[in-house]
Amino acid sequence: MNSLFPASSLAKACDSDMSKDLCLANAQIILPDRVLSGAVTIEKGVISGITEGDQVPDGAINCAGDLVLPGLVELHTDNVERHIEPRPEVDWPHLPALIAHDAELASTGITTVFDAMRVGSIHSGKGRYLDYARRLADELLAARSQGVFKISHFLHLRAEICSETLLEELAGFGPDDRVGIVSLMDHTPGQRQFRDLAVLKTYVAKKRSMNDAEFATHVENLLGLQVRFGAKHETGAVKEAGRLGAVLASHDDTTSAHVATSAENGVGFAEFPTTIEAARACRAHGIAVMMGAPNLIRGSSHSGNVVAEDLARSDLLDIVSSDYVPSALLLSAFHLAEVWNDLPRAIATVTYNPAKAAHLKDRGALKVGLRGDVVRVRKTGQTPLLRGVWSQGNQVA
Questions:
Q1: Whole-angstrom distance, CA of residue 391 vs CA of residue 80
Q2: How much is the pTM?
């Protein structure tokens, strides 16, 4: 057996107390640049060794040729909101919702998540959105401090430009709140994600049960909010992201002008650009492009925007997010592996690249010294079957 990385021998590592240490042997290990037949050893929550060979020392888990890859890193998921509001106007108890959300993500291979929470409320009309993020964040952070969760949680504040109370709500967060990302979201009707008002109408009519008159009033209200608050909210949200020490993200950039503004604001990555023009502009400005896994799996955008696979084939895709289907994240990586014929590159879109974009240097790859977040996968045809998930060496699924 040849040791490729500085670490204690595999046999010595695997003789440790398995309640603290872990060895996954006889596996196909997805490294940043290649696939290695060998073993990964984790001690005290950290990767301590990666070795080559098919031996299975005493105490090791025999992976029987299964793939072992880094734990998935999710930058933008609506899943927590789905759990706290399982139906429109249904407010579910937050702690049970958070626990269920955490367990669901762990079961899909996600070991780090940035939980997206909307900041910026609308208190008038049938299309109202009420303030909830500060209260939910308090409950999430308290649960985390008590060791309730299986995986690692950070906050992602979705700063809704087209709202009434964005800056007041952002002011309620501080540098100690684990706010990793602030995204600039402008859902003003007639532009970005909802350039086609018919698409917006279908979306809100199903979500909020609006009739034609109510929808017209809703659109008029949003347009008015954009006029009154749009510029102020965007400038203020950029400033607040800096105060919080968060990475700034854009959302639904559509034109090269949108991307130029994003670059001026210091955006680190672009969530779901809606056109190939915007994606190309992101590449020119050095802004990483993130697309949704559901778009990749379905082969189309539910809003009629650019197809994610087209961006992948044009070398314009860096990061994938599960968006609204947690289980789609792992599936999308294996889909990209077929598109690119490059498994390490595909896995990086859901591990290393999102970790890098979020400035997390301690995870996202299988390297000695990084967190022991690993996933064991067996392929069934072209479908990945999860066989185990570990967070800092502790099995969570």
A1: 20
A2: 0.88
